[in-house]
Amino acid sequence: MKATVKWVDNAMFLGESGSGHTVVMDGPADHGGRNMGIRPMEMLLLGLGGCTSFDVMSILNKQRLNVVDCVADIEAERADTIPSVFTKIHVHFRVSGRGLKDSAVERAVKLSAEKYCSASIMLEQGGVEITHSYSVSEVE
Predict the structure, then answer these.
(1) pLDDT digits (tens, 9 = 90+) for 28-49
(2) CB atoms within 10 A of CB 90
(3) Which Gene3D superfamilies has this protein been placed in (predicted)?
(4) Which domains does the chain have, with CATH numbers?
């Protein structure tokens, strides 16, 4: 896996993934940026959310469950000192569908957290406390 990050100006950078997708990263005005893109640490948090969401949906789809929507709400705390690393992250999955079993969603979240999500496991090994929760709702 490869990626490239190119400086544009001030605190703005253009990131390109090995698969050819790009994203603008920029800092806030008080750090020389223009607030034109996502912050790098926000992107890291989104990467975690995307990784674990991909796992959860993959597991649920393999069970042929009728999932209509899956949203991961992510909240993080950072250290007050430099480096301002993540210290705690909580991921709450809101899964909705038809005839979903609570136990199936619980299992999918647990498998992602403990076995499959590379981003989550890597951050935990680095000392970040990561917790997960979920809610299941029925749709018509």
Answers:
(1) 999 899 999 999 999 999 999 9
(2) 14
(3) 2.20.25.10, 3.30.300.20
(4) 1-38 (2.20.25), 40-138 (3.30.300.20)
